[in-house]
Amino acid sequence: MKISQAAEIEDLRKLAKKALPRIIYDWIEEGAGDELAAQGNLNSFRQFRLLPRYMRDVSERTQTVQLFGQEYSSPIGFSPTGMQGLVHAGGELKMARAAVADNIPYVMSGLTTVRLENVAEAAPSHLWYQPYPTANRAIIEDLLRRAADAGVKNLVLTADLPVEGHRLRSIHNRRSGRPNPWLILEALRHPRWVANYLKRRPLLEDLLPYAAPGASRKDLDEMFGREYAPVRPKQTWSEIEWYRRLWSGKLIIKGIISPKDATSAVDLGVDGIVVSNHGGRQLDRAPAPLDMLPIIKMAVGDNVEVMLDGGIRTGSDVVIALCLGARFVFIGRAALFGLAAGGHEGVRRAIQILQAEIDVTMGQIGCTCIEQLSSDYLWQKNSHEYGDISHKASLLTGRRPDVSGGMTQPESSAGLISVPNNIPVYGSLGSTGATQHFGT
After folding, report:
1. Is 348 inside a domain boundary?
2. Active-site entry in 278, 344, 384, 391
3. pLDDT value of residue 386
4. Among 268, 307, 267, which Cα is nearest to 409's?
5. Residues 370, 430 within the same domain
6. 328 and 359: one domain?
7. 394 & 283 share domain
8. Whole-prediction pTM value?
9. Looking at the structure, do residues 296 and 334 belong to the same domain, yes or no?
10. What is the rounded CA–CA span in Å between residue 337 and residue 322?
11. Together in a domain, 361 and 391
């Protein structure tokens, strides 16, 4: 199958599996533990059906979205995923150029194989940046200076990586701390990938300015393990305060899954929240972001932009997330499948597939623009059962619902209020109440 013949993201996944050595494919596809959370992200969308409204003029439709003062062609962007050069040579540049071509944002991971300035040159107005924390704050300060000088306006901080997830595929593939010899032989069945890898062996290029002159790839890997990894378990909200003081642009925090964390982030002045469980790669029993999206949206109201990452495979998935309150969604694996399958062309094909599916879905349900999407277009078996999202939000955050949207300052549990049960509850909240699922 040619890239141009791929009709769905699943086609790109199959092409990626053929193109990549197993050890690289597993690294993309794996989740934590038994991968229940990763699978749950996908399944969370399947509980919904879209309720169409017919006899409407949908002859002219648009997906354009305004986000942080910039207009994008679709409500989708590329999540930060590290070491894209392992998937395809110069992967970060290919992703960035695809983002420009299709006018969507690209969040560049700090774990990059291409220098920040080079990627910014390829995507001067579409690049967001996700720095990795380090024990040496001077490095972070310089990275942020470099990002600002390169024209980056949106900074993304990752909250859900305190320790490395227990990923069994990687453990099995590297039992002795090194790749399984059989997997090395298996890699030879993918000669194009091997040739690209040997031609430009990827390294953590963006760390070179902070390493000793002539640092090798091994030196950079050791530097990352020494300077970066030990910092993750020590991160607290004070780090967010520090970044907020340092960064004058938009500050987004990714990896929020708890309503309490969402309101804490708002209190510290973040401009956006990405509801995410790291693709199910960190905690094997984490709830799906889609299940938590409505209650987080209720908790923060319109005080920040609420976005979603995790489980997106179709345009209908995108529409469902927007109907539940997301302003924007980000894709990780779907974009990497395209990158593995065909580099720049493959990434663009992934976006084209999703855009075409979004367009058809909007026309089918009777919407002509993204702003029209709401929970009115959602249906599920128990959607006739009603609960109170705002009350559940207050249970989980300890705050009263604010009549203007969002939550007020913390209240004791005795001060929680009830409002009429007139808000449909979706996903795992059901009609059984928040206390049964999450505790108080």
Report:
1. yes
2. 278
3. 38
4. 267
5. no
6. yes
7. no
8. 0.87
9. yes
10. 23
11. no
- Give a yes or no: residue 398 inside a domain: yes
pLDDT in tens, 5-36: 999 999 999 999 999 999 999 999 999 999 99
Same structural domain, 329 and 393:
no
Specify if 26 maps to a domain: yes
Does 355 map to a domain? yes
Q: Please indicate whether residue 278 is annotated as part of the active site.
A: yes
Domain with residue 87: its CATH number is 3.20.20.70
How confident is residue 401, by pLDDT bands cut at 50, 70 and 90? low
pLDDT tens, position by position, 264-287: 999 999 999 999 999 999 999 999
Say how many domains are in the chain.
2
Strand partners, 331: 78
Parent domain of 319: 3-167+228-375
Query: What does the alpha-carbon distance between residue 397 and residue 303 come to, in Å, rounded to a whole number?
Result: 16
Write down which residue in 375, 398, 420 finishes a domain: 375
> Higher-confidence residue: 79 or 385?
79
Q: Mean per-residue pLDDT for 113-118?
A: 96
The residue-averaged pLDDT of 300-324 equals 97
